Amino acid sequence: MSGEGPINVSYIFPNGDKYEGECSGSASEGVKRSGAGKHASAGGVIYTGEWLEDKQMHGRGTMQHPSGALYEGEFKDNMYHGKGTYTFPDGSTYKGHFHHNRLDGDGAFTDTKGQVWTGEFLGRAALGLKLQHTSEKQALFYYDV
To answer: Is the pTM of this model over 0.85?
Structure first.
């Protein structure tokens, strides 16, 4: 196994989780998830993306939750970290920066009515957001006059 490129595996864990994707390893260390793969938990959470050293979602990926929530973006140490888009179960979205699973920095929140709010997000706080006017809304305004 040592010195070869990644191998593709399909593995079911004792708890019912399932992994399909790339692995690497050696005879002394065994096989580890490394590279691109898909992990489906027994609880219905599905992660598709990059793995680092078997235990970490690390790099670009997508995480789908049973609630309908979806995250697409960068992961680091099993957390949303970097640029990404989070779609809430109600269809509203946040697109921007994440730090340790929290909204962090400049971003845009689009509510269920399609209104886009931009500004700085800090965890659960988002002070001073501004409503962004879209050209479609402006065009509707001009037609209504």
So the answer is: no
